Amino acid sequence: MSTQPHVYAADDPESALKYAIQHHGGDRVEIVEGVIQPLSPSWGHEKAANKLRRQIEPTADKLGCLAGSGNIDLPGSSNWYVPDVAFAPEHLMDGAPALLPDQTLLIIEVTSESNGDTDRIVKRRRYAEYGAPLYLLVDRQEGTCTLYSRPGRLGYTQVDGPHPFGTPVRLPEPFDLELDTSEL
Fold first, then answer.
1. How far is residue 109's CA from residue 14's CA, in Å, rounded to a whole number?
2. Domain 41-179 is in which class?
């Protein structure tokens, strides 16, 4: 039995590229500035993301939010991100193929040696440009956490850090909690 390929007529290259990565049937990938990048985080990477997620989830539950690593679309650009952890209102996740950065309450990215500059520079700039209110960068290579807030077209206008691992990091409203970074 042969399978027929799915034919998709896109009006523009952005739509075609984003459709292709959502329906390719292979490993998860993201698009960063038009380049398709496979996602294969190490266990150390996953540990750092999970430690933070567990600390934030009780507050997120009270806010009616869920945590996940679902797709984030940046319309009008050749970017389709898969953050390490994002917190967003639960009702926005019903059937949506992707959320927009400004629909999240917090995005966490954990750097890897292979793509640390993507998280430090490219994603930080793009998340701000698209209105993600809080961006927590966990830099495993530098051993620091930096919280970015007050997004604007030219980047985040408020920066808290970098703080060495072990220094508590305060998440502002709506979370209003202090993160323990000692085990990252």
1. 24
2. alpha beta
Average the pLDDT over 13-31 and give the result: 70
DSSP for 64-81 reads TEEEE---EEETTTTEEE
pLDDT at 15: 73
Three-state SS letters, 80-148: EECCCEEEEEHHHHCCCCCECHHHCCEEEEECCCCCHHHHHHHHHHHHHHCCCCEEEEEECCCCEEEEE
pTM: 0.89
Confidence of residue 34 (pLDDT cuts 50, 70, 90): confident
> Quick check: 16 and 8 in contact, CB under 8 A?
yes
Residue whose tokens read 């060495």: 164
Structure tokens at 142: 């530098």
* DSSP tally for the chain: helices H, then strands E: 4, 12
- What percent of the chain is predicted at pLDDT more than 70? 87
